[in-house]
Design goal:
The structure holds two protein chains of two kinds. In chain A, 29% of the residues lie in helices and 26% in strands. By secondary structure, chain A is an alpha/beta fold. Chain B has a domain at 35-116: Ubiquitin-like (UB roll). The chains are: A alpha/beta, B mainly beta. At the A-B interface, β8, α3, α5 and β11 of A face β1, α1, β6 and α2 of B.
Chain lengths: 373, 151
């Protein structure tokens, strides 16, 4: 069994920042990711980030990703790629599978930064080839540089739907329309404006009725919804498309937190079941921290700040720094998170995080589990 | 219902080759980096791939839209998440079923087949004791034995 001060699971924006921060506090850090490359989903983010006080504003995810990889390499973090963490046992021991063997790693503290996975949306034909997550289409065009289809219907007008619709245009695809079941566009006006300028119709108050085709997606039918979100017969519109991209939210990938026995809460604002955690990103299990989308679905900019917080506090839990130093290092990141979550677009996250902090006392949060490693 | 005013689309400069779905030039990312060509075989038919890309990208570029058929209703599937989470894109690769093609890089001469249901393991050549030998178990542990045997 190998031993390490801090083990970080997931090398996306949150995990990279957590690993870097723990290493800065003098920890020997292992950063584990099952993928062949580190960076998580940063390398498909080719748009400029923004946010009034966020220090990554104006920069593209791909550039931030490259910088973070340099940072962890410079700090001597052990980056283990192709390494899937499949178990979390007593004594903060991780079970790690590589292609041909499995090994165990005992850590002084663990940061779970496993991210989130795209939600599906069920309608007749949703399993047909050509119906895929918007993030999947984004990976195909921006990372692999292959068009998954030529003509796309985007479902969901949150930031993911709007940004990926625009990036599909940049990649040379046609976007037939963006539909959203809600009565107004969900994402930032700046992204919606880009779509509008490109002449893509945005149908709010609409959803997909069905996708049909001869073994593959060929036609998507959308219809208007009434105030109960039921389809309105007679309002159908058909679009000839070979791809239907679903941008209908993400769910935290909290399996390892469940395994660890972390108390879990169901918070719709944060994407579903998330580990109950405090402002230090501490879960109910001592020495197990969370950061990024696994602790509540947000954006890469906030994931990076949470990663810094979790990494610093994990270093303290591993005994490599003092509580005072960790608190001092945490200050700018707490402030940055407050900034990122300010304003109307951060309201749901603020509400969700507060609900978690209030724990079982809040009726909104259904607390499950409660064991512990 | 709110509809945005329809106008003449403003499109960034784009070059997509006529024969494939590859994005050759890109307004933000620039020209595609040069990568060595690799040939894989889909049901025996050669498919042009690029070194380092996942199988799913090579097949999508070639216009392949059915990667597998489901066990019970034989429904077609292709890709859904594209990042190794959902297993919708699994195929039989070099005799090994349930390979996630969206995260498995191509290799020269690789044999890729549409997976029927849960797939059937191909007997590992010259090594009857290989851990992957025998019926599908749903476990990935046998992968190295079969793939290793194929070189």
């Amino acid at each position: 069994m190998r031993r390490i001060d801090v083990a970080v699971v997931g090398a996306g924006p949150a995990g990279l920042c957590a690993a870097a921060e723990a290493a800065r506090h003098g920890c020997e850090v292992a950063l584990l990711d099952e993928n062949a490359k580190a960076g998580g989903q940063l390398f498909k983010q080719i748009h400029k980030f923004f946010g009034s006080r966020a220090h990554h504003a104006g920069r593209r995810g791909i550039d931030i990703g490259a910088e973070l990889l340099d940072e962890v390499a410079g700090l001597g973090v052990h980056v283990c790629l192709g390494a899937a963490v499949w178990g979390l046992y007593e004594g903060k021991t991780l079970a790690v599978a590589e292609s041909d063997h499995s090994w165990r790693l005992a850590a002084g503290a663990i940061v779970l930064a496993t991210g989130a996975t795209e939600n599906g949306l069920s309608f007749p034909g949703w399993t047909l080839p050509g119906v895929m997550g918007a993030g999947c289409a984004q990976t195909m065009i921006n990372v692999h540089r292959v068009l998954p289809g030529r003509r796309v219907l985007m479902v969901g007008s949150g930031n993911v739907g709007l940004i990926v619709a625009y990036q599909l245009l940049q990649a040379g695809a046609e976007v037939a329309a963006v539909v959203d079941v809600l009565p107004r566009v969900g994402g930032y006006p700046v992204h919606a404006a880009k779509i509008a300028r490109a002449g893509v119709p945005v149908l709010t108050g609409h959803t997909v009725k069905a996708v049909a085709g001869d073994g593959v997606a060929e036609e998507a039918t959308v219809w208007a919804v009434d105030e109960h979100f039921h389809g309105v017969p007679g309002s159908e519109q058909a679009f000839r498309v070979d791809t239907v991209a679903l941008a209908v939210g993400l769910s935290p990938m909290a399996e390892l937190a469940w395994l660890a026995g972390c108390r879990m809460g169901y918070v719709p604002e944060l994407g579903g079941h998330v580990p109950v955690h405090d402002g230090r990103m501490t879960t109910s299990v001592p020495g197990v921290f969370v950061a990024g989308d696994v602790s509540g679905v947000e954006e890469a900019s906030s994931a990076m700040e949470e990663g810094r917080l979790a990494g610093g506090w994990a270093a303290a839990a591993a005994g490599k720094t003092t509580t005072e130093r960790a608190a001092e290092a945490a200050e700018p990141h707490v402030a940055a998170l407050d900034g990122l979550r300010s304003g109307p677009y951060g309201a749901h996250v603020r509400r969700g995080k507060q609900a978690l902090a209030d724990g079982a006392a809040t009726a909104q949060v259904q607390v499950l589990g409660g064991g512990g490693v | 219902m709110v509809s945005w005013a329809q106008r003449e689309p403003v499109r960034p400069h784009i070059v997509v080759t006529a024969v494939t779905r590859r994005i050759v030039d890109h307004p933000v990312l620039g020209p595609a980096p040069a990568r060595a060509p690799v040939t894989i075989f889909m049901g025996g038919t050669p498919v042009a791939a690029l070194e380092g890309e996942p199988i799913a990208a090579a097949l999508a570029a070639a216009g392949v839209r059915v990667f597998r058929r489901t066990s019970k209703r034989r429904e077609p599937r292709q890709i859904f998440c594209g990042i190794g989470r959902c297993t919708d894109c699994v195929m039989v690769v070099d005799g090994q079923p349930n390979v996630r093609t969206c995260v498995t890089p191509v290799r020269e001469g690789m044999r890729v087949e549409v997976q029927d249901g849960r797939g059937v393991w191909e007997r590992a050549r010259g090594d009857s004791s290989a851990p992957g030998d025998g019926p599908a178990t749903g476990s990935g542990d046998g992968a190295a034995g079969v793939r290793g045997g194929d070189g």
